[in-house]
Each structure stands twice: as C-alpha cells, then as structure tokens.
Amino acid sequence: MKYVSEYRDRESAVKYAGLIRKIVKGEWSIMEVCGGQTHSIVKYGIDQLLPDSVTLIHGPGCPVCVTPIELIDQAVEIARLENTIFCSFGDMLRVPGSSADLLGVKAAGGDVRMVYSPVDAVRIAADNPGREIVFFAVGFETTAPVTASAVLQADHLGLDNFSMLVSHVLVPPAIEAVLSGEDCAVQGFLAAGHVCTVMGYTEYEPIAEKYGVPIVVTGFEPLDILEGIHMCLKQLEEGRAEVENQYMRAVSRDGNTDAVQIMRTVFEAGDRKWRGIGGIPGSGLSLRERFAKFDAGRKFKVSSHEVDEPDICISGEVLRGNKKPSECPAFGKECTPEHPLGAPMVSSEGACAAYYRYRLARER
Amino acid sequence: MCLGVPGRIEKISENDDPLFVTGSVNFGGVLREVILAGIKDPKIGDWVIVHAGFALNRLNEDEAMEVFDYLGQISGLGQNELQDSDAVSGSTEEAEID
C-alpha cells in the first residue's frame, strides 16, 4: 500500500539500527507515548534492534486502556437499558468493567454494535427514530475531531435520540504527569504522530523546556520509529532538549487548525481520571454546555462509584511505564487476551496484548 | 486506536456547509466515504490521512521520502551508495522487520 509499505523496508531498518549503535554512548530511556507505536515496536522487534544501553518505555497512549473502569460500568449500565442501541469501537467491547463487559451485555441479548466511526452511530440514530442510540466516545486528540463532527451532524439533523458517553483524553497533560512522577526514568519522548497531525506540536515546546527532555514527533511505521529514536538519542547525546518532527509527511508545527476548531466547538478541556494512573488535571474533554443534550451520562442519569482494580493486575504500573508486562505475575496465566484482567491485555495497542501476541506466543 | 490510513480522494460530495463535505477515498482499492471537513479546499487526487472516517490532514507528498533522506544524511552516504553499502549496518541477527 502506497505511503505505508515503503516504511517497512528491512534493509533501511537495519541501517538505521546500525547508525543508532554508532551514536549511542550513554544509557538512555525513551518513552513512546502512543499505543500504536508500542504495537509496531513489539511487532517488528524494534526494541531488540537497539543497543542494550537504550531502553524503550511503553507509555499510557492507549485510550482504550486508560478509560476508567467506572465509565465501563456506566457503559454496561446504559447498554442494558431497554430500547437502546449501544455503539462502540470494537476494542472497547471486551474491556472488563467491575463485573461485566459490553460483549457480555451483547451475549445476554443487549443491542451492542461495533462501529468504524462515530458518524456511523449518527446514521443508526437517524434510521431508528424510536430508539436511543448511545456512542462510547473514547480516544485522544486524533479521534476528538470526528467525535465532534458526529455531534455537529446529530445537531444539524435535529436528532434527539443520539447521545455519547465521553471519555476523550489529551496527551500533553499525561506527559507532564509522567514527568512529574516520583522516580521518573524517562529522558526523552516519541510523541504520538497522529495526535500531532491534528494538534501540531507547539504544546510540547514548553514541556521540553521545563523538564529538559527531547520530544520527537514520530510516525508509526518501523522506519519512522527508528528515525524518531535516532533523532531523540542524538539530542540526548548532544545535551539538547528540543521538540523535533520526524513525521513531516503528516505533521506541521501548527497542526490542522480546522480540525482543532471543530473539536473546540464541541468540547472543552476538564479534569479526567485515567485507569491505572488516577486523576490528571485538564487531561480530558467534555461536551460544552451547548451540546449537553448529547451527554449520555446526564441523559440516562447513570450511577457513579469508585471501583478498585483486581489486586494481582499491575496495569497501572505498566501504563505509567514503571514495569514491563512480562513482570506481571498474572501475565499469560490468569490474564490473557481471551480472559483479560486489565485493559492493556484487551486492546491491540495495549502493551500487555502486544507482548502476549508477539513475544509470549513466539517463546511458546 | 490512533490508526491513520493514507488514502486518495476519488470523489467529493459538495455541501453548502463545509462542516459536512464528504468524499470517497480509495485505500489501496477499498473505497470509503470520509468526512473532509478538516481539509481546506479538498481536490480529487489529494492524499489524506484518515482516522475513523475523518480526514485528519493532507499527506505532504514532498516529505514522503524524508525518512530515506535522513538516513542518507546521517550515514553520510547518498541514496545510491546506501542501497549498496553495508558499511553502516549493525548486527542483523536480531532484525525482525518484515
């Protein structure tokens, strides 16, 4: 596929790996923020191409993984309501809540549907005027414009049977939360390419300066990631801490201002709890008051309660980058993609699922 | 989740409100209707990066080969020399790139 397959060239990847070995003198830890990058790194064995002195720490950039368990419970509660069609991206269906997941609701007869786009849910609402259609809106800044577009379309069509449970999160506050953590080992970041396609990277410049860390906006294919790692290591070796852009074919400094405008028309920033991490100020998006009628939480008056994660699951440590999935006592035993204890074992972009699929399966 | 797939615009469905302009985008032979509200003045033939049915941005074709340019630059070799040279190659035994 054009603009994809050329960035998977093995020869070039090996050359990049060789050049990385040439410039590295110190010991460095770099966090890739995005779960899509984690998936590529583990799938293609990019971490195994690097010198032992370079560690890749997997970051919290899997929106499915960081959606709070309380919100999954709310989704389950709404999906069980009579006359409701609950729409969601596929990855969310199997994320365990405190007692059930959405796929279980579907198996028990609930009308739970997997959609490719939130706009598909709007179409379902238009086609089913006698039923309530609820979309589970998860995602980073990459997804927020299309979710906002869905709200604008529903508003334009005058739909009163469409609403969404919003769990949108923002990357820069999460990077700051990682950097502010005690014993933070991260010395440089690969920023999430498609988040920056929308937002640009001006938000990262004060973070790089304040914390003295290089941040390289990076794409998702193997050569993108190797180039991003090289750029980040070069900065570390030279004692620089700047924001650089590896993913120039998709990202400009100011991003896509039209998409950002659509997002800001519908959403405003607010505090948000991240599963496994806790509350991060200003790290979430909520519907603006003008669009409150599309807020499923308000519409269905769902219950709110604090829930604890299973004791054995260390997904919080994994999401903060403190531990690798293979350090979890439940990894591959009590916790598998078929029977996940924590969200990172569910999503294809979750670090646990990637390790299970590409590392444990090969070892076995 | 943040997957973005490059595709080429084949058809544009005009709408008086730019917020609702859509287009048919070709992903390696698969066509899909995509929201083009985030693309200024979309044209047939433009490459866009699409996520969940929304075009996030135009793909900058001038920068598409940048990863190879950078490789040439950091290795101190030209593209042709790079093709032939194994001077910059490190250990290949662990490489798993498909």
What would you note in describing this structure?
The complex is a heterodimer of chains A (364) and B (98). Chain A has 364 residues and is α/β, with parallel strands linked by helices. Chain A contains 16 helices and eleven strands. In chain A, the strands form two sheets. Chain A has a six-stranded mixed beta sheet, with helices on both faces. In chain A, helix 12 links the parallel strand 8 and strand 9. In chain A, helix 7 runs parallel beside helix 8. Chain A starts with 9 loop residues before the first helix and ends with a helix. Chain B is α+β, with helices and mostly antiparallel strands. Chain B has helices at residues 66-75, 79-84, and strands at residues 5-13, 22-27, 30-35, 47-51, 54-58. Chain B has a five-stranded antiparallel beta sheet, with no helix packed on it. The longest helix of chain B is centred in the C-terminal third of the chain and has 10 residues, at 66-75. At the A-B interface, helix 1, helix 2, helix 7, helix 8 and helix 10 of A face strand 4, strand 5 and helix 1 of B.
Largest sheet of chain A: 6 strands, mixed
Note the gap between the termini of chain B.
22 Å
User: Which class best fits the helix and strand makeup of chain B?
Assistant: alpha+beta
Question: SSE order of chain A in H/E notation?
Answer: HEHHEHHEHEHEHEHEHHEHEHEEHHH
Number of strands of chain B: 5
Give the helix tally of chain A.
Answer: 16
The rounded Rg of chain B comes to: 19 Å
- Shape descriptor of chain B reads elongated
Uncertain spans of chain B, ≥5 residues at pLDDT below 50? 83-98
Order of strands in the sheet with most strands of chain A: 4-3-5-6-11-10
**Structural class of the helix and strand makeup of chain A?**
alpha/beta
**Which regions of chain A have little confidence, pLDDT < 50, spanning 5+ residues?**
none
Overall geometry of chain A comes to: globular
| Annotation, overall tally of beta strands of chain A | 11
Using only C-alpha atoms, the radius of gyration of chain A works out to 20 Å
The residue-averaged pLDDT of chain A reads 93
